[in-house]
Amino acid sequence: MKTNQSMTRPAKIISFFSQHFGWNYPSNDPRWYLCGWDATVFRNVRKYSTDFLLESWRVEKEVGEILTKEIDGITAKIFPAHYYPWLGYFNFNIIRELKKEIKQNNVVLHFFSTYNNQIYLLTWLFRDIPIVISNLGTTPPIFRYNESKNIKYLILNKIFKLTSKHIDYYFVSGKDEREYLLQFLDNEKLSYLMNIGVDFSAFHKKDKTEAKKNLELDVNKKYIMYVGKLYKQKGVDFILKTFEQLKSEYNIGLILMGGYKEDPLYQAAVSSGAIIHIREEDLPLNLYYCASDVYLIIVKESINFLKFGGTGIASLESLACGTPVVSFSLRHFPSADIDKVGVIPKSVDELLNCVRQILENPSKYYQCREIAMSYYDWGIISNDLIYQYKKLFNKKYGK
């Protein structure tokens, strides 16, 4: 029941991301407080709305007490992490603190994880509060059971189905998850796209020849680009093989960004003659995307990851720079425009022909940036989030 009191209380969105990030930044770096995907989302929401108080909560192993700091109009709240066999790293004070918040504010909870025992627990305990879920690539328990036949995933599947009916809005990771969730969640509760975007002002289109000149690359060469660790899980072995095969047909180069010298395929990459830039280097990533003719990534370690891992941020960054993509994960891009932004191989055996197709027909993909921007610009993503938040606040609290 809506009351006058509830209609005058502050509207607050509290996120919880069930991962810790102590390894990402030193704790004296302001970025340490807001370094999860929830913080990225909230920063962009803040650009388009000041209607809500925003708080980002998580746990950290190295923290001895609850830490609170406001940065960029967002309050970060860090809890000491304790390990529990069933829950992983968690802090039960989170439950106590949420109860306090609910007494003082009109609260919407936004969980940036899905198939996770902590999220099941919080969803059940706070089922009377509006709950938004963002899946950033985790796999439903039933699919894990189908892959491993471990009975615990059948139990977790029952728990997820029990708690999922209390989810008010769900940002899916891609088409497969949406199709799966439609079996027991209403269509109006499900998004069509993941709520992660790209800053199109940071990744912008530049003439390829000019970009190559700026990077002192061979302007007469075609370039394949990949961003990520140098290991088989991301198909780097097949990327190297494809590069080797293409050398006999094209004046071509391979640019590998963001790996480490310790990566399993680092030496193989060096032997291939690829241009390698390790993660520690501060490089103009935008220019490298612009200078490349095709972005190639082959995630293949798990069929479930392909189903629930989404399109991939690096692929979207490449499209923002006007460079088309070859990737299995491109299947999650909106169907109407997939053929205009890249090629989806049916198997690793098709990689060579897929890359050829783009190299031979570059003009077909001239609208990569504009098409990607129409779906994944942070302005569009943020305004959709704000719309959903406002609907939930109005439904529950009358504001």
Q: Would you identify the CATH architecture of the largest domain?
A: 3-Layer(aba) Sandwich
Number of E-type strands:
15
How are the strands of the largest sheet arranged?
Answer: 3-4-2-1-7-8-9
Based on CA atoms alone, the radius of gyration comes out at 22 Å
Going by CATH, the homologous superfamily of the largest domain would be: Glycogen Phosphorylase B
Shape: globular
**C-alpha end-to-end distance:** 13 Å
> Percent of residues in beta strands?
15-25%
* Arithmetic mean pLDDT: 92
Tally of structural domains:
2
Query: Helical percent range?
Result: 25-40%
Which parts are unreliable, with pLDDT below 50 for 5 consecutive residues or more? none
Q: What is the SS-derived class?
A: alpha/beta
**CATH C-level name of the largest domain:** Alpha Beta
Commentary on this structure:
The protein is α/β, with parallel strands linked by helices and 399 residues long. It folds into 2 domains: 4-197 and 377-397, 3-Layer(aba) Sandwich (Rossmann fold); 208-375, Rossmann fold (3-Layer(aba) Sandwich), CATH 3.40.50. The chain is 39% helix and 18% strand. It is built from 17 helices and 15 strands. A 7-stranded mixed β-sheet has the order 3-4-2-1-7-8-9. Strands 12-11-10-13-14-15 form a 6-stranded parallel β-sheet, sandwiched between helices. Helix 4 (117-125) runs parallel beside helix 6. The mean pLDDT is 92.
